């Protein structure tokens, strides 16, 4: 159980009363101890979204395979859409995309984004994505994984960060995607605003 | 480090001794401070399963695409079973299913369940599922993601809730699935009993 | 907010001053209470990697389906590689593999590993994996899920454990994979060194 304001108040009161009535203080603390000996029920606390323990922006570049660009392609459709609607329902894409600190996809990558996404809506373009950022530089070694619905037609969307390893061991948080640039079927760039709220390293 | 009963006892004892021996108290606290300055080793505490911070029941409706029902279908097989056994091993289904607060699939959806599942057993029907509930109503905005094995032949099965965004930011918990109704290959309804044990909003 | 050394110091100082100046103590505590009444900003603490709350080693056996071994096969390719490079980019495998406590794949399984992986690199063998360990023995009932990039050519690699149910409810941690044995395309064995840092059961 976390140490709350109520506990502080108890201590405060106890200190004030210390010279007055030791026995009363004793029984108060005994009561608290008994109450606290229960199981943990659950964690319920508001999170200050403005104060992540780590916050940084990265750019994610996807170059789709079109059978002619094997040298440059970083992602490919592996299951074709099935014709349920006209928004690619059922299409699955696997990727291993470079991740950079600026918008230039020729910049030295600081990570690779490895994962897949698929289209799952009949009435608009909408994807579900699972993606691990793999860092292997002098600055960062480790991974963390993003997974969530990705309603691409919205200007920004929040996706869950659910775990990590190495420098990002056990991390959790939120990644805000915004589609920075789309060039037809060939290339898109995502801005990823990464906010970690649990940092253990 | 969490504030435990032991710490309370120390404080309690310290208060009792306060007028007797300040130096002893001082060294006790110094000892505690030194002990607590270590790294966090790990979290080990029992969870009272009867006290989630949020608990609600939703119904998940899956209408399978059969090539004739494009208007109504909400899910579709995208990879066919490969013939390893007779329980659909290898079949992959992508869905975007309505989620309602009661059993009627015509009720106004409160969320969409977006994700996929696949069959992975030779000897019985058994799936593995990943699924994000996307809430976009006046009551709730946000997402959380369920992921786990789903042994469909058992009357109830627990699946992990691993993260979320918006109203469900960083949430974790357990979702108990029970198959409410199956109508051949065309329709099934899942009851989802959602218990969140970490709530930050 | 966790109870830190700073809080201890405050209390310590307060106790020391208790008989000297009650009003000063009072205002100090009032200040602390006000500071602590803010929202939780984030969790930032180092994790002692040597002290998991649970640590055990399991072996994961994968027998690939080759159309002739339906009786023994525990995994199968469900989407074939697409020819982008020569390292199986795009190949998806679904598995339901036995997990044992020793290296012998004929030992009584203590769990099944259910999930999928896919190849996602043009220049070497590299996979991304999602996998739930399903325990159903007298010793353990429950599940936990592993998910991460799996750079198979490295001797060891850390993967995130992101959640669980039953005996492993809400668990988190890291699983270190090492490829123990490969027999061509037919069989491989993974050693899984499982370290849980959040245990609620």
From TrEMBL, chains A, B, C:
Keywords: Apoplast, Secreted. It is found in: Secreted, Extracellular space, Apoplast. InterPro entries: Allene_oxi_cyc_Dirigent (IPR044859), Dirigent (IPR004265). Signal peptide: none annotated. Pfam families: Dirigent. One of its GO terms (biological process) is phenylpropanoid biosynthetic process. GO terms for cellular component: apoplast. Dirigent proteins impart stereoselectivity on the phenoxy radical-coupling reaction, yielding optically active lignans from two molecules of coniferyl alcohol in the biosynthesis of lignans, flavonolignans, and alkaloids and thus plays a central role in plant secondary metabolism. Homodimer. Belongs to the plant dirigent protein family. This is Dirigent protein.
């Amino acid at each position: 159980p976390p140490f709350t304001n109520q506990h502080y108040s108890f201590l405060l009161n106890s200190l004030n009363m210390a010279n007055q009535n030791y026995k009363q203080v004793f029984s108060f603390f005994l009561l608290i101890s008994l109450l606290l000996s229960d199981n943990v029920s659950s964690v319920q606390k508001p999170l200050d979204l403005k104060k992540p323990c780590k916050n940084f922006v990265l750019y994610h570049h996807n170059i789709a395979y079109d059978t002619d660009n094997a040298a440059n392609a970083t992602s490919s459709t592996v299951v074709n859409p099935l014709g349920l609607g006209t928004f690619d329902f059922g299409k699955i894409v696997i990727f291993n995309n470079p991740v950079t600190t600026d918008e230039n996809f020729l910049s030295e990558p600081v990570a690779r984004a490895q994962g897949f996404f698929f289209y799952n809506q009949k009435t608009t373009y909408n994807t579900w994505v699972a993606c691990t950022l793999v860092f292997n530089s002098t600055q960062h070694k480790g991974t963390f994984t993003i997974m969530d619905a990705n309603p691409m037609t919205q200007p920004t969307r929040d996706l869950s960060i659910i775990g990590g390893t190495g420098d990002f061991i056990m991390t959790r948080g939120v990644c805000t995607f915004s589609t920075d640039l789309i060039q037809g079927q060939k290339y898109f760039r995502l801005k990823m605003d990464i906010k970690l709220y649990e940092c253990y390293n």
